[in-house]
Amino acid sequence: MQEGWYNMETLLNKPIPTSADGLSRVDGRAKVTGAAKYSAEYNQPNMAYAVLVGSTITKGTIATIDTKAALKAPGVLTLLTYLNAPKVPGHVATKPQKPGAKSGPLKIFYDNKILYNGHPIAMVVADTFERAQYAASLVKATYNKQAHDTKPPKDLSRGVGAWDGKDFTRGTVDAWKTAPVKLEQEYTHPSEIHNPMELHAIIARWDAPDKLTVWDKTQGVRATRGDIAKAFNLKAENVQVNSQFVGGAFGSALQVWPHEVAAILGAKVVKRPVKLVLSRPDMFTSVGYRPYTWQKIGIGATADGKLVGITHEAVGQTSSFEDFAEGPINTSKGLYVSPNVTTRYKLLSLDVNTPTWMRGPGEATGAFALESALDELSYALKMDPIDLRMKNYAKVDPDNGKEYSSKYLDEAYAMGAKQIGWDKRKADAGSVMENGWLAGYGMAGGMFGAYRDNTVAKAIMKADGTLTVQTAVSDIGPGTGTAMVLIAAKVMGIDPGKIKFDMGDSALPFAPMQGGSATTSAVGSAVNDACVVLKEKFQKLMGNGGTDKPDYVKILKDNNLTELETVTRSQPGPDNEKYSMQSWSVHFVKVLVHPATGVVKIDKVACVADSGKIISPKTARSQVVGGAIGGIGMALMEEGIIDHRYGRYVNNNFGDYHVPVNADIPQIDALFIDKPDPYINPIGAKGMGEIALIGMAAAVANAVYNATGKRVRDLPITPDKLI
Amino acid sequence: MPDKKPVTPTGGEEPSNATRRDFIKQTSLLTAVALTPGTVVEAATNNMDEQIAAALEKLPLKMEVNGTPRSLSVEPRSTLLDILREQLDLTGTKKGCDHGQCGACTVHVNGRRVNSCLTLGVMVNGKKVTTIEGLANGEELHPMQEAFLKHDGFQCGYCTPGQIMSAVACIREGHANSEAEIREYMSGNICRCGAYPNIVNAIQEVKAGGQAV
Amino acid sequence: MKQFQYIHPTSQTAVLDAISKPGSKIIAGGTNLVDLMKKGVTAPDKLVDINSLPLSTVNTGPDGLHIGALTLNSVVSENSLVLDKHPLLAMALKAGASPQLRNMATVGGNMMQRTRCAYFYDTAMPCNKRTPGSGCGAMGGYNRMHAIFGTSTQCIAVHPSDMCVALAALDATVTIAGKKSKRRIPFTDFHRLPGEHPEMDNHLAPGELILGVDIPDNNFAKNSYYLKVRDRQSYAFALVSVAAGLDIQNGIIKKARLAMGGVAHKPWRLFEVEKSLEGKTPSEDNFKAAAQIAMQGAKAREFNAFKLKLAPATIAETLKHAGGLV
């Protein structure tokens, strides 16, 4: 790496955050004592249990369903199939990015069609879980089978699928081919399954024929309320959605899935509250996944490393009945200055269940390909990978010419390089041995749009000096409550211990879904604004223009008030249109690869995030660490495997679908730029969840290449690919 | 073990399609009349056998959970995990895979950490079970709970009870002597959010602190 | 899971009596059996809980080190006699499963655990081991984890144990009780190859009970190593694993013991390789040459061809560790 483009003593000598820094989670005590209750844990009086039965063929129609034995089994209350299930008045459709050519989300128990292996064909409701599960095993179906297709063809470069995104070109089409130094390579990753630790679960309870309460695993109680209301033709205010604690989701709970509709149907039929918890195998076919994606990158540069052109093609898997599209090609439009960019994105329809967004979504997919290709180009140019990136550093958004609201990726490169010890990297791949292991360094970065949605927050100051802040956001783990309490504490000038943050309840003021790394920006702004308004109310009561630090207890008492509250809407302004708003990250990895067995050990990781102002140091650090580990899983082991003869998963469990375990993970250094974005919102925070993962898989793959001289372009990088 | 006839039909390796109701009717009407109380026969023949049959299939289970003696009647097929969560409403112990592949259900049985999802309830008869709810001393958190809070050893919190039960055992077993050893001996608990380094830090702090765990 | 009857006899006679009836199955730790019952792969009518039998001792006896069948995997792996005399066994045990599972799993149960083949586990798929005559899903399917040695036209599953690989290498014997008599067989003869009857994993007859294993004294303690190559660092089944014990005297290998896991329907003892090493010096070249001998007769399929390279590499690497070269 060349010296000179950074010279930032203070930046590079910032202390490295530790896991003990910052305020501990406000909901942490509930989580460490087991008091935190997740959706399946609100046991209701007289509650029944539902278990789904999935198809054992991939495509065709149901000929017969034998439910006799199951119905006779002890404790069975009902058994729903397409033949007897009550009709769902509306359809659940919640995918805002849907190109939308096909018939939409799966309608459960709708007709006799089988659209993928595991397609729910029946649901047993019984008085205990064990009895429901046993009865479900007695349901036998026969099918009229049709030929199915679950295997992507080998050559995808000609494009396939029902929906073609518009090809995009900036400058000249496929101009990379004219460059003096160029390469073209294909990259794939298999379908990856979110597999949050909490199984998707719902308890549905009809309180009246037109009134429903659910405890449901969701990333957005308001969105779920709207979807359920629409599906069952209810008034939104008659649907109460609770999701107090969510045991991870990573995108899998961004929409209402068929099992949720099924449980609500079941509760209607048996006239009892019904609990439905998906099994781990169900998690592979019932709630989406990161789609298998094939990508091809053509990239070319001048001999001194100036990019001439990038062509990025991608084909992502989707289902036969619904189009799911995401943004794998976005990164190539904007991560680097390149006068010529061509992108082509297509969907491939297969007889599988529909994918959905998974952490980092398409941008993580795209960054794997682009950042691997950049690394390959750096070797072709005999240039340091960081220098190559700096050579093509974008100071304004190459995609639209807008100025960035903030961008400190260059500083992030410098901080990460120092932290990992980048100067120890040897440019010759496969040349360093440490204690019998090949050692190598890699880096890669990523970007993700920084968003801000409308949010409403309510803030109530009580006579005892405690503040309650409320909004209908869900928290899937990043620590929303903690960040919100810190924001409120700062504005109000009170101790965080005096603040309560209520969420996960659809009756609270509107908040968007927790997705797209937008929660701190959107909800945090609303909390900030509500507290500002509330404080001003107090300052008005004080008279004389008020002071900076109102004595809330005294003011309430002096004015004979028991409490003072405000409901405040917070929304983006003109700046959100004027500037290009992005969060940035870079990941540095040192790997050790065993030359004989191909085993890869992650030895060191340093990640740097430019996500604006860090609101909650402890939880922000954990977000970065967690995202990096998700990226390590993507790089080294995650792979949903289907036996294409049957169209059926052969590793739909935690024993065979590998995610990292503790032994796979070293200490991970998470560093922050921690400079407020002046334009995105009043609190200066951008997003964190996605960029924590985006680029990580490429960083690992690039390190493996540096260690071994073997370029693995088809994830995951398992030992067999390195021997 | 009460001396009673099996109430499930034999069926080799494949689940049988016959039901208990059929079985009771057959046995009561044909061969087993003498062995079956008259009320059962009557109930069975009148299709009112459900509750009686259910009662017959259950076995007594006496165990101590978090210091409290519990006396239950459970089906032999009920796992300790489902009994804790669905019958005792001790939902701190989590179901993540139900097959011993994730560790979310980790509890201590007679002081050893085990996967409660693979433990049949009847096999815990007479034993002591400690769950996450039994770790704190009233309002005073266990040092491991404090350390998890301090080092943010979790995000979503779902694997956390299992992690903490495992972490306490890891120290008690003497497997917390180095970072590498902790990582290996905590590998039976999957955390999808990726809190592993923080978990290791929490365990190291408790170990170094020398508090009784 | 199907309902079943559960009994908990307290004497060996009562256990033997109970398990002599068809439809009965022994439960000890239950880590594999309960798993299989939940999946509907097996559905016994009666579970015979044998945990009250006095079979959980580890002690030295006339036949070497005796380990009772009910001794927990975790207990064996920490036992001072085991660590002192047969560290290879402790290493293998620690490489298996997770601390929680090892706290439940017993030595006998570990021997009895069934394959982790996905087709065996999924009742919607063909599997000759689960349902004889239904076909083998793995042969033309996803067979990355499957056997390269000793397969048959019926089955290519592998035995998943780590412990058994070490016991096979260490010349252990198994003591088995029947209703009428006791018998002892070499550990290497306990498990069987699939042949025409893949539904049978081993030679334990119906109604028999494993009492324990005995490991004869040896001089391998100083030069033992267990290496397990897997898709992640812990809590995963082996792609290939190797147990090696060397008796090195005056710089010469006097005796060698080697077995492989993840490559066959049973722990795969490498007698020929052992012979080839005897009298040689522990050098990288000698180890690599020996490893090649191990591969005679290996046969790969679509997804497990990498094992043809990984297996000898892992043998050589394990020998290097055992021989003190690493």
TrEMBL record, chain B:
Stretches assigned to the 2Fe-2S ferredoxin-type domain: 59-135
Database matches in Pfam families: Fer2, Fer2_2
Keyword Iron in record: yes
CDD domains xrefs: fer2 (cd00207)
GO terms assigned for molecular function: 2 iron, 2 sulfur cluster binding; metal ion binding; oxidoreductase activity, acting on the aldehyde or oxo group of donors
Protein's recorded name: 2Fe-2S ferredoxin
Organism, as annotated: Mucilaginibacter pedocola
Keyword set, alphabetical order: 2Fe-2S, Iron, Iron-sulfur, Metal-binding, Oxidoreductase
Domain of life assignment: Bacteria
PROSITE patterns noted in UniProt: 2FE2S_FER_1, 2FE2S_FER_2, TAT
InterPro entries: 2Fe-2S-bd (IPR002888), 2Fe-2S-bd_dom_sf (IPR036884), 2Fe-2S_ferredoxin-like_sf (IPR036010), 2Fe-2S_ferredoxin-type (IPR001041), 2Fe2S_fd_BS (IPR006058), Aldehyde_Oxdr_Iron-Sulfur (IPR052914), Beta-grasp_dom_sf (IPR012675), TAT_signal (IPR006311)
Region (Disordered): 1-20
Cross-referenced PANTHER family: OXIDOREDUCTASE WITH IRON-SULFUR SUBUNIT, OXIDOREDUCTASE, IRON-SULPHUR BINDING SUBUNIT-RELATED-RELATED
Automatic annotation (TrEMBL), chain C:
Domain FAD-binding PCMH-type: start-end pairs: 1-220
Database matches in InterPro entries: CO_DH_flav_C, CO_DH_flav_C_dom_sf, Diverse_Substr_Oxidored, FAD-bd_PCMH, FAD-bd_PCMH-like_sf, FAD-bd_PCMH_sub1, FAD-bd_PCMH_sub2, Mopterin_DH_FAD-bd
Keywords: FAD, Flavoprotein
Pfam families: CO_deh_flav_C (PF03450), FAD_binding_5 (PF00941)
UniProt GO MF annotations: FAD binding; oxidoreductase activity
The protein's name: FAD-binding molybdopterin dehydrogenase
